[in-house]
Design a protein that fits this description.
Chain lengths: 494, 250
């Protein structure tokens, strides 16, 4: 997003971590956009309230979370065998399994399949993995038109916008903005912003696509190793349509999406629906296993995507990240996301999970500001249905960033780096700390006003005083008071 | 009962009145307090910014300094959370078994102030008098890391004269987050603005908490905006009596 005060209010967001602006800079236009902030806060408050109610009614919620975490951890510790079982069972059921190491590979595999199918158009079930590998622009450039069928994704596609949330991708867009996009792109001048009118317009638009396009692309919420099945959950039924009419289905799934057995869905579907949309059960759950003659797509391909995931398996702290079931409860709970929305994260995965997932997918070569996009308040960890200790992973990634940067010339004299190195020295000896307090108290007087408060500081201190004052240093530190008190007879200073 | 006071680096430097209040309060309750002038910092700032090596130095220093203490009281929930949640990982990573053993033995004796009062001393009525309208901000670390639960309210309920005003969105962060407040100053300020709306709409005279870092953030904005509300650490409320009112530094 460009920070141009005279530019359009909604500049086209960049969700590629390689080109996105650093988080502290990317948030600036958002923070100055009242409509966007209002849209995000309102949408989140609605979902949060629904989730809160439904979690509360579940007396075994903590046990469910533990079960969810245990299932996902077990899979990640045994990922290779479960993937092999999935491949074997899916293949036996008539599916064709492809493996892709990175985004370029999966894009090429999909394009090759589409060429075989002689497809020039494709309909899509909502899939964030497709956005991760930037499939749509690639296919469009190769001459394949892509049509999103999820309502939110249609809004974004027609509005040339990008997702700002992984469950509710158009969360930052309000009703009147949707009306404007539909009216303009569907040629419906008299369209009202009544939700029924808007969904009716989307339905008419979609029907034509469903009936005329025989090739579909989907993501996956879960893969079941035991049966070789793919599971997609959704709210609108568009996904179900994509699984009914087309003759060919191509699914993209991250390798971490696998579950050992069908029984595991019992836990996962319970925690997913409540966490994601605040529903007891999501309206549509589709499960398909390879190809069923006479029912649904007769050709089924699945591309299993690594794209940086297997590198995250090695260490326990980082591995937690892959437990994620993409419910977005963390972003809904996050006080940072509530202010910024998703685009500022410069990744299809925003919010707390994005702040730990994106830099790792980028092998810590990009998005290094994201682990710092958190006040470490812990709300994300508290709501996570698979108990990912996001603050712990954030801290791990922060230390990796510091280790990367601390010896580089640009950072060596950075006020923050310098300050923390000096602080460490001061904290290592009490007398040094006390001397620093003494001289600091003298130095800070130049910035302290007559009312005893500091209103303006230089350098990084100015970042504090741009919106808050700081009370001036008191005449006496606590330890000085204690020492003085010790000299007096007992009780006098009490 | 003996207890060692770990005042924390920023309370020592910026909020000595909180330390004085803890001393007044605990001595009134019959606790014999020790204070080692050798103490400095728990390492939270370093750990939370990614300077793990430096944080380890402070963790080691803290552990060595207090290994023989009967109990350690800390009037800062985020520093206690640092010790409880992050020290084990730091020591595990370093693999120094001796230090790890010392820390494991020490940890159950480390208390946040309200934990110390309720769990260790078993009191909720500390004989305080504070005739003011007060709203309580449940700092994130107190709420989600230490799970302080009802403890602060049990203490406040017994303060004579104190009128409590509930704070909406109690579980929402004020936006401080240590170096977050300068590294992401604008987002932090946006979070602060939202929090301050909730705090101000209570119409309280004071906003209290068990962590001066949140209060430094909220109080700094209140002062900037001539908001007509002040912040005060809960220790200062609990220490206040009719004969010796709370020390409020303007």
């Amino acid at each position: 997003m460009s920070h141009d005060p005279n530019g359009p209010v909604l500049a086209h967001p960049v969700l590629d971590p390689r080109y996105a602006e650093p988080f502290p800079k990317a948030v600036l236009p958002v923070l100055r956009n009242p409509q966007l902030r209002k849209n995000v806060a309102h949408a989140i408050d609605v979902i949060q309230a629904k989730r809160g109610k439904l979690v509360q009614e579940k007396s075994d919620w903590q046990a469910l979370r533990s079960a969810g975490a245990a299932i996902r951890s077990h899979v990640l510790e045994n990922l290779a065998p479960y993937l092999e079982i999935f491949e074997a069972r899916c293949t036996a059921a008539g599916g064709i399994v492809h493996w892709a190491a990175d985004a370029a590979e999966v894009r090429q595999i999909i394009l090759d399949i589409l060429r075989q199918e002689q497809a020039t158009e494709v309909i899509k079930i909502k899939t964030m993995t497709s956005a991760e590998i930037q499939l749509n622009p690639f296919l469009e450039a190769a001459g394949v038109r892509t049509y999103e069928t999820d309502l939110a994704e249609i809004i974004l596609q027609l509005g040339q916008d990008e997702p700002s949330h992984i469950v509710v991708p158009a969360l930052h867009v309000n009703r009147s903005q949707v009306r404007e996009i539909f009216a303009r792109t569907m040629g419906l001048k008299d369209l009202s912003d009544d939700p029924h009118a808007l969904t009716a317009a989307a339905r008419t638009y979609l029907r034509q696509k469903f009936l005329s396009i025989p090739t579909a692309i989907s993501g996956a919420n879960f893969l079941v190793a035991e049966t070789g099945s793919v599971v997609v959950v959704e709210s609108e039924g568009n996904g179900r349509m994509c699984l009914t009419l087309p003759r060919t289905m191509i699914t993209i799934a991250g390798i971490e999406k696998v579950l050992p057995s069908f029984q595991d869905l019992e836990v996962m579907l319970q925690v997913l629906a409540r966490s994601a949309t605040g529903e007891r059960m999501n309206p549509y759950t589709s499960v398909w296993t390879g190809v069923t003659p006479g029912d649904g797509p007769q050709r089924f391909h699945i591309v299993l995507l690594d794209n940086g995931r297997s590198r995250m398996l090695a260490k326990e702290t980082e591995r937690q990240t892959l437990r994620c079931i993409r419910c977005a409860a963390c972003m809904n709970a996050c006080p940072v996301y509530r202010q910024t929305g998703g685009h500022a994260y410069g990744s299809v995965y925003p919010g707390p999970i994005g702040a730990i997932l994106t830099p790792q997918l980028m092998q810590m070569h990009h998005a290094q500001t994201l682990p710092y996009a958190s006040s470490l308040c812990g709300a994300c960890y508290e709501v996570c249905p698979v108990k990912i200790n996001i603050p712990e992973v954030l801290l791990e990634l922060r230390s990796q960033v510091v280790n990367q940067e601390r010896h580089t010339a640009g950072r060596f004299f950075d006020p923050m780096y310098l300050g923390l190195r000096v602080a460490n020295l001061l904290f290592s000896r009490a007398w040094l700390f006390h001397a620093a307090q003494y001289f600091g108290r003298i130095g800070i007087r130049f910035f302290t006003r007559k009312d005893g408060w500091i209103h303006s500081l230089p350098s990084i201190g100015g970042k504090w005083t741009q919106t808050r004052d700081l009370r001036g240093f008191p005449r006496q530190t606590f330890h000085e008071w204690w020492a003085e008190r010790d000299l007096k007879p007992t009780g006098e200073a009490k | 009962m003996r207890a060692s006071l770990f005042i924390t680096c920023y309370n020592d430097t910026l909020y000595p009145e909180t330390g004085r209040a803890v001393v007044k309060l605990l001595e009134r309750l019959g606790v014999a307090l020790d204070f080692s002038p050798q103490q400095t910092c728990c390492g939270q700032m370093h750990a939370n910014t990614g300077f793990r090596g430096e944080a380890f130095c402070q963790a080691k220093r803290f552990t060595r300094l207090y290994q023989d203490a009967e109990t350690v009281v800390i009037p800062s929930s985020s520093c206690v959370a640092m010790i409880r949640d992050q020290y084990p990982g730091l020591f595990a990573e370093l693999g120094n078994e001796e230090l790890r053993g010392q820390f494991t033995a020490l940890l159950p004796r480390v208390y946040e102030l309200s934990e110390f009062l309720i769990d260790k001393l078993g009191v909720d009525d500390v004989g305080a008098y504070f005739p003011h309208r007060v709203t309580y901000h449940a700092s994130c670390h107190g709420l989600r890391a230490l799970h302080l639960g009802e403890r602060p309210w049990r203490l406040m309920n017994k303060v004579r004269g104190l009128e409590q005003v509930p704070l909406a969105n109690l579980d929402r962060c004020c936006g401080f987050g240590g170096t977050f407040s300068v590294k992401n100053a604008e987002v932090s300020s946006a979070m602060l603005a939202v929090k301050l709306q909730d705090v101000m709409s209570t119409g309280a005279e004071y906003c209290t908490a068990l962590d001066n870092s949140c209060l430094m953030h909220l109080g700094g904005a209140m002062h900037r905006q001539y908001a007509g509300m002040k912040t005060i650490h809960l220790a200062q409320i609990l220490a206040a009596t009719e004969a010796s009112p709370a020390e409020v530094v303007s």
